[in-house]
Amino acid sequence: MDMSLKTKTITTAAYERLKADICSGKYKAGQHLLEKELCNDLEVSRTPIRDALVRLQEEGLVISKPHRGVFVRKLTEKDIRDYYETRAVLEGLGAKLAALNMTNEHKRYFENLMEDMKFALSEKGDNHKIIALNNALHDYIFKVADNDVLDKMRRTLSWSIALIRATSWINENRKFEVFEEHVKIIKGIVEKQPEEAKVAAEDHIYKAWESAASNLSNLSDEEED
């Protein structure tokens, strides 16, 4: 294998792993990311770690402080409020449109996703799998909604989604609450009840907002020092 390609592959793998760990909450908001510890954890040299951290900084997931190092970005109350107010509108409309576009094929796919998520919840500690299924569910809702502009607007919030989910899921019980909220959303969609689906989706987002806001005050102030 070409050495430059090999290095690129290792860097990409390191980037994807670190991003997944931030999204799953392994690395908490405000946490200092030490290169040596990351190298040991991922079993790679410093160069791929540094390159991966640069990419994460460009995406807004981490910040670099002169003479101090790299930290997982810590969101402010305004960051969270702005995000959830916007996402509630997008998710509500997405669920409503999905209900209007429902087919039997869509129904089967939703049911399979929910079964997979239920199984993942029974496997304690597997946040990566739960988050992947959560993303798949929301992605599919917007696929069924079939509104490219709406989906593009949602995807512009991707970096915020990662950080806020890591914040809101500090409470382990939250993932089980999320599942029950998803059940209500999917029920409205598969039964072709657009208003019911819209309200359930908005309620889901507002509850996530409440959870994230509650946990924000309990996080370390290390990033602000």
Automatic annotation (TrEMBL):
Signal peptide from the UniProt entry: none
Keyword terms, alphabetized: DNA-binding, Transcription, Transcription regulation
Phosphoprotein as UniProt keyword: no
GO MF term set: DNA binding; DNA-binding transcription factor activity
Keyword DNA-binding: yes
PROSITE patterns found in the cross-reference section: HTH_GNTR
Every HTH gntR-type domain range: 8-75
PANTHER family tied to this protein: GLUCONATE OPERON TRANSCRIPTIONAL REPRESSOR, TRANSCRIPTIONAL REGULATOR, GNTR FAMILY
Protein name per UniProt: GntR family transcriptional regulator
